[in-house]
Amino acid sequence: MVQRVTYRRRLSYNTKSNKTRIIKTPGGQLRALHIRKKAGSPKCGDCGNVLAGVPSLRPTAYARISRRQKSVTRPYGGSRCGTCVRSRIIRAFLIEEQKIVKRVLKAQVAETKKSGKK
Fold first, then answer.
1. Alpha-carbon distance 89 to 75, whole Å?
2. Are 80 and 44 in contact (CB under 8 A)?
3. Are 30 and 65 in contact (CB under 8 A)?
4. Which segments of the chain does DSSP mark as H helices, in order?
5. What InterPro entries does the database record attribute to this sequence (predicted)?
6. Distance CA 49, CA 28 (A)
7. Among 23, 27, 29, 76, which residue's beta carbon has the most beta carbons within 10 A?
8. CB-CB contact of 94 with 58 (8 Å)
9. Which DSSP letter does residue 107 get?
10. What CA–CA distance (Å, rounded) separates 72 from 75?
11. Confidence grade of residue 114 (pLDDT, cut at 50, 70, 90)
12. 17: left (phi over 0), alpha (psi -120 to 50) or beta
């Protein structure tokens, strides 16, 4: 006859947090081994791709690891991927360039009006 296996914790329902698998102990008994939930990978806030260099852990496990393991040493390290950071930097640079060009054109227009009046 097959040995019966019961849950080893108080929760007696087959929920997502109470998954088990059956293992055989060195004493030859069958036991229910409670399985931890699988961790989701941290994703980029802009494009949604998985962040490289940041481990996939359950939320409480992040509290136990050091700060350098939670992010990458770069601006927006643990929240945005490298491609998105690059595009942000380029966008900011181009916007600043556009402002300078507008300022120069405005100055040229003002100068032509000034010289046209004389």
1. 10
2. yes
3. no
4. 59-64, 67-70, 82-117
5. Ribosomal_eL34, Ribosomal_eL34_C_sf, Ribosomal_eL34_CS
6. 45
7. 76
8. no
9. H
10. 8
11. confident
12. alpha
Amino acid identity at 20? T
User: Do 6 and 12 touch, CB atoms closer than 8 A?
Assistant: no
CB 37 within 8 A of CB 59: no
**What percent of the chain has a predicted confidence (pLDDT) above 90?**
90
Contact 2, 15 (CB under 8 A): no
- Burial readout 50-73 (b: 16 or more C-beta within 10 A, e: otherwise): ebeebeebeeeeeeeeeeeebebe
Tokens matching residue 116: 């046209």
- How many residues in the chain? 118
Task: Please spell the DSSP secondary structure of 30-60, one letter per residue.
Answer: EEEEEPPPPPPPPB-TTT-PBPTTS----HH
Cα 3 from chain centroid (whole Å): 44
Longest dimension (CA), the chain: 111
Q: Which two tokens stand for residue 31?
A: 């036991």
